[in-house]
Amino acid sequence: MTRPIALEDLFRFRFVVAADLSPDATQVVFAQTRITPGKDEDDDEAEQSDLHLLDVESGEIRRLTFSDSTNSAPAISPDGTRVAFTSSRSEKPQLWLLPLDGGEARQLTKLEEGVGSGAAWSPDGSKIAFTAGPQEEPRKPEHPYRVTRTVWRF
Question: What is the pTM of this model?
């Protein structure tokens, strides 16, 4: 039996938005997004995503994160034991680290403006690179702005 798509059907859709393959190609960590309805009738829907671990050989999938936030941009460590990811668990997106064999995620950054992109591991797994915007107070447009360079429009 076929029928048109109804509004409540949209809450059952799931989309893979990012993925990373482990160095030994046996596992994939992927971010799967979903739309959740608002708590009250007047509330907007919210987009949330969680990380999942796929065993390539068996096809078994295990959910890694269980929060009502956006967890995305997974990056598996070079030794394949940890995954770094961005999460909006706090107000701004921050970088988190999660062991793949189980355990709690640990917050790595606490930047006022949050992080701008996902993690990139160093080859030995001892360092993680990411982007972030300026951490000072943003300029308020209603305050005067002093031009200190010749070309000011750029």
Answer: 0.77
